[in-house]
Design goal:
Length: about 700
């Protein structure tokens, strides 16, 4: 009798320990019978997880948390927060333990502070605040449709316009200021809407117009029995209001509205241009991706946005937040219009709970340490110090036949498996350097000088993993900038891979993390206004208040930091290598030039220059030399480069389950078919897509597709 079919679990090799691949592993291990179906091993270069979002505790500097990147999670990150909340629900730390609950680990913030570093601009930073909701991100609230976004923007604009000028606070006062041709066209648009079955404009008398009553009725119509139901009717309803908004705004700007309300005038202008663009380009039916071949600013200009609005703080800050610049050059902003517009509308109109959240400590301990422990307890294997070198396609089939891996270290005698975490004040954390006591020759300065997170790092052995023996499937979570060598044979076999590698653009990020003696409120001279924001037209435009992390660090009482700040931004590709000194020079220039833009009380009395004594330095260095005690960083390794979505890039991306090789699945914010934008939510969505494609299970992914009108 011949033996029956094999029932062993499928072996899954996961390369890369970033948020995308770990989300895939998390989703697979959520399946009730996953152990019967899969045997999962994660292979990670270096000693820690987290990818571009990783952080580590510097055990030589009071166990302070040193991070890479800009760790702000927006309230629309439903999939990312659902994962984080599930991790905290399952790990169930003891009451009173540090960061025991999700609400302790993530701090809600309702305001962004947007300012400029231009010394000639004396206007105070703009505090953009949005009211908090009762729910939490990750609750699975329904995703607004593209049409709903347009409707919301349009009604908001119509509500705001009479408030932009004190002498023209009614529509009866505003409409007569239009050009005659524009005013005469309006009734024709209303008649056309009536011909489409829209009743909102019935009864309008051009000879005795009641403009205010008309607009009240039109706005209320979207919620009544006569609300437009088809796409054609909705567009017919919107066109008279859009016409009204555009010409009214133009008239009020001519009367000085931009001088009295510069930010809201800009916001209304951008809102109306967005509505016009959605209607004109049919995005309510096609989705935002239909305009990804254009730059967002160009698209808004084409649909009527004023040049002043295109250069405004809110729009420049949107590009800065995603570091959307060609080659990292601040003078060359560029972003795929659909991807960035989708993110902007979800950020401001579809968030749950607060506008955004900041981690109470480094993301390493807030997310990646508990996620690692949960996955390990579930039975996932981890192989640290293993770097992917090469993927070998099968010569006869569309599959990967082998993976070449470089093992970077030998474990010390008596160490069977590398244990990556340390505890700081009872909190499991990743160290900022390997735990050398677990490594052969770990006390050797030569070994300690190696950057084990670099692809170029040496190795002690080359290991070949073979399909059918060591793995059956692969989840690839390593981004294209680090795959030029490993995926070269895939690109030779499949032109889509060649296009992916050629058209995935990335930039280097850089930043400075500062520990200061005064509290944040003392630096401001008032209570804290916001937890994050942008100081534009500077080399380090993004900032975050990380002061809550101090309590989880190991500072002695005499050197306790009152505030912790993170500054970050893009580093032009033409810059020097990513060593610390040049970034430190950039941070020094920033602090000399722009301290008052962020902290009004941080300057020396009677001068604009930063008071260097405010920087915490246990060694007591003088002046700018105190920067040597701070954490200056740059993402010089290929795997750490920030993916940017330039116009046209999304068409070259490959979906999580569409690699062209039957046993290869993709995860990460560079994967196509989701947000097409680098952020935590995009990485998690791609990981869930990989898990769904691999398992065949109907894994739900919130906001995966734009909600569009079928007709």
């Amino acid at each position: 009798m011949s033996p029956g079919p094999s029932t062993r679990p499928r072996k899954l090799a996961v390369f890369g320990g970033g948020l995308g691949s770990l989300s895939a592993v998390f989703a697979l291990t959520e399946l009730p019978n996953w152990r019967e179906r899969f045997e999962i091993t994660v292979y990670q270069i270096g000693w820690r997880l987290g990818g571009k979002a990783r952080s580590g505790r510097n055990l030589r500097a009071h166990a302070r948390s040193e991070a890479l990147g800009h760790h702000v999670w927006y309230g629309w990150y439903d999939n990312a927060f659902a994962l984080a909340r599930r991790v905290y629900a399952e790990t169930r730390r003891a009451p009173g333990a540090p960061l025991a609950t999700f609400k302790e680990a993530w701090k809600p913030c309702d305001s962004l502070l947007l300012g400029t570093g231009d010394g000639s601009d004396r206007a105070p930073p703009w505090k953009m605040s949005l009211p908090r909701g009762d729910n939490l991100p990750g609750d699975g609230a329904s995703q607004p449709s593209v049409w709903h976004f347009a409707q919301t923007l349009l009604l908001w604009a119509i509500d705001c316009i009479p408030r932009l000028h004190p002498q023209y606070s009614t529509w009866a006062a505003i409409v007569p200021r239009w050009a005659d041709a524009s005013r005469s066209l309006w009734p024709a648009l209303m008649r056309r809407a009536g011909g489409q079955g829209v009743r909102a404009y019935d009864g309008f008398d051009p000879q005795s117009p009641d403009y205010d009553g008309l607009l009240r009725r039109a706005a209320a119509a979207v919620h009544g029995d006569d609300a437009p139901k088809t796409s054609r009717q909705r567009r017919a309803w919107a066109q008279p209001l859009t016409h009204c908004g555009e010409h009214s705004l133009r008239a009020l700007i001519g009367l000085g509205a931009r001088q009295t309300h510069p930010q809201f005038t800009t916001m209304v202008d951008l809102a109306l241009a967005t509505v016009r663009g959605i209607l004109h380009d049919g995005l309510d039916r096609a989705g935002f991706s239909a305009i990804d071949d254009q730059d967002l600013r160009d698209w808004l200009r084409r649909h009527g946005a004023a040049e002043d609005s295109l250069a405004s703080t809110v729009l420049v800050a949107l590009y800065a937040d995603h570091m959307s610049y060609e080659s990292g050059d601040l003078e060359r902003p560029a972003a795929a219009a659909g991807a960035l517009l989708r993110a902007a509308l979800r950020r401001y109109l579809a968030f749950s709970g607060a506008l955004y959240y900041t981690p109470a400590a480094g993301l390493g301990e807030v997310l990646f340490a508990p996620l690692y422990r949960l996955l390990r307890d579930r039975g996932v294997g981890f192989r640290f110090f293993h770097k992917l070198k090469h993927l070998c396609p099968d010569p006869k089939h569309a599959a990967v036949s082998a993976a070449v891996v470089g093992r970077q270290i030998e474990l010390a005698p008596g160490v069977d498996e590398y244990e990556p975490l340390v505890k700081v004040k009872g909190l499991p954390c990743w160290p900022s350097r390997p735990l050398y006591s677990q490594i052969v020759l770990g006390d050797d300065p030569v070994i300690q000088a190696i950057d084990f997170e670099a692809n170029e790092s040496p190795e002690v052995e080359e290991v070949i993993l073979r399909a059918g023996v060591d793995f059956d499937d692969i989840v690839l979570g390593i981004p294209p900038p680090a795959l030029a060598g490993a995926a070269r044979e895939l690109a030779a076999r499949d032109p889509r891979w060649e296009a992916l590698l050629a058209h995935t653009h990335s930039i280097t990020a850089m930043g400075a993390q500062l520990w200061l003696s005064p509290t944040w409120a003392q630096l401001l001279g008032s209570p804290a206004l916001a937890g994050a924001g942008e100081i534009l037209r500077t080399s380090l435009p993004r900032w975050v208040n990380l002061s809550s992390a101090a309590v989880y660090e190991g500072w002695p009482r005499e050197h306790w930091p009152g505030a912790i700040a993170s500054l970050s931004g893009p580093r032009p590709d033409r810059a020097a290598d990513g060593s610390r000194e040049p970034v430190r020079d950039i941070a020094e220039t920033w602090l000399k030039s722009h301290p008052r833009a962020l902290w009004p009380e941080a300057s020396l009395a009677g001068a604009d220059e930063f008071n260097w004594e405010l920087l915490l330095d246990p060694q007591g260095r003088a002046a700018e030399h105190r920067l040597a005690a701070q954490h200056c960083w740059a993402t010089q390794n290929a795997s750490d480069r920030q993916i940017v979505t330039l116009p046209g890039d999304p068409r070259h991306r490959i979906g999580a389950g569409d690699s062209g090789f039957r046993n290869l699945w993709l995860a990460g914010d560079w994967v196509g078919g989701g947000l097409d934008l680098a952020c935590a939510e995009g990485a998690v969505m791609a990981g869930l897509q990989a898990a769904r494609a691999l398992s065949g299970e109907p894994i739900a992914i919130h906001g995966e597709r734009d909600c569009v009108d079928p007709d």
